[in-house]
Amino acid sequence: MYELTQWGMELEPVISALGRWGTRSPLRPRDAGMSTDAFALALRTMFDPHRSGGLEVRYELRLGEESFRAVAEGGSFEIVRGSTDGPDALIEASVEALTALIFEGRSLEETLRSGEARVEGDRRAAGRFLTLFPLPEPAEGVPRAT
Question: pLDDT tens for residues 97-116?
Answer without folding.
Answer: 999 999 888 999 999 999 99
